[in-house]
Write a structure and sequence with these properties.
The chain is of the alpha/beta class and 327 residues long. It contains eleven helices and 13 strands. It is 37% helix and 22% strand. The model has no long low-confidence stretch (mean pLDDT 96).
């Protein structure tokens, strides 16, 4: 546990995974099929985490591939806008295209349409991750989508090896997206293999259940991982809060209820809020609650990276909110 926390406390993260373009109808509440105007923003789970870390006072560098076109350049410009180091973001030409998400700023009848055909980020290879000087960072963070296709899968496992050689803890957000995988069986095997190599694992009840073979077995799966390979495991349960396994303890935390505008971006924001709060010296339970507050802020505003909290927003939210629900 100490090596994990010490790595996080450096507050300087190398993040592996996709950056994408988000499009969402304006004004909020509009269905995509009725849209007259669309707003554009930075998206992609790893890019969101990296941006969220920077907005909360940390440092991050993203490792990925983007399409060699105006959309890819947009993503790079947005990363730089949020303060993310984009030196390891490499364009790829040909027919590869950036990830594109079209989603609605509404909860009821919410629609998200993800375009991932010929995804540029899946072209990240071993040379891309080998170019990183891992000694400059405190921890590596990645989300499960990187493992859904080659050469990205092999490259990320290679990055795990390089990070381990540099004594960096590995932080893994399961982030299972069925549409990215050729089969559920393959996804279960590969994500489980990634979890076995991680020092910290974050996932929801469905994701842990998926790796275990049934949702009813997910909690036990999280507990076993914390007892065998991972120093810290966060088992998220939506509106019921979370159970975190750390140093033989089970820490139960609630959520900060808000009037949600959309369901997207909460997990990425939670990760950014949690790790930067640990880096800022908060104990694990307080850091979990701060991560939960970040998630609530994000779902209450349009967009993903644009909606994520900065330090001032988080501080004001915590001062104004009556407190989290009982866990």
């Amino acid at each position: 546990m100490s090596s994990l926390l010490n790595g996080i406390k450096a507050n300087n993260f190398v993040v592996i995974g996709r950056a994408g373009m988000d499009l969402y109808p304006d004004p909020p509440g509009t269905a995509t099929q009725d849209a007259q105007n669309m707003t554009v923003g930075l998206g992609g789970s790893s890019a969101n985490i990296a941006a969220g870390i920077c907005k909360l006072g940390g440092r991050s560098a993203l490792v990925t591939r983007v399409s060699d076109d105006s959309v890819g350049r947009y993503c790079v410009n947005q990363l730089k806008h949020y303060g993310v180091d984009a030196r390891y973001v490499t364009p790829v030409g040909g027919e590869y295209r950036n990830s594109l998400a079209v989603y609605e700023t509404r909860v009821q009848d919410h629609q998200s349409v993800i375009y991932r055909n010929g995804a540029a980020d899946f072209q990240m290879n071993k040379s891309d991750v080998s170019a990183v000087d891992y000694n400059k960072y405190g921890a590596l963070i990645t989300a499960g989508t990187v493992f859904a296709a080659e050469p990205s899968r092999t490259a990320t496992f290679h990055a795990f090896d390089l990070a381990r050689a540099a004594n960096l803890p590995i932080i893994f957000d399961v982030d299972y997206r069925p549409y990215s995988w050729t089969s559920a069986a393959e996804a279960s095997d590969v994500l489980s293999a990634a979890a076995d190599k991680a020092d910290m694992i974050v996932g929801n009840d469905e994701e842990f259940g998926f790796m275990a073979g049934h949702i009813d077995k997910g909690l036990d799966k999280a507990r076993v991982l914390s007892e065998t390979t991972a120093a810290l495991v966060v088992y998220k349960m939506g509106h019921l809060g979370a159970i975190t396994f750390a140093e033989g303890q089970e820490i139960r935390t609630g959520i900060y209820p808000v009037d949600a505008l959309k369901p997207t971006g909460a997990g990425d924001s939670f990760m950014a809020g949690f790790v930067t709060s640990i880096a800022d010296g908060y104990d694990i339970k307080t850091a979990l609650l701060r991560g939960s507050a970040c998630a609530s802020i994000t779902v209450s505003r349009p967009g993903c990276a644009p909606a994520m909290a900065d330090t001032e927003t988080l501080t004001q939210f915590l001062a104004d909110h009556p407190g989290p629900t009982e866990s």
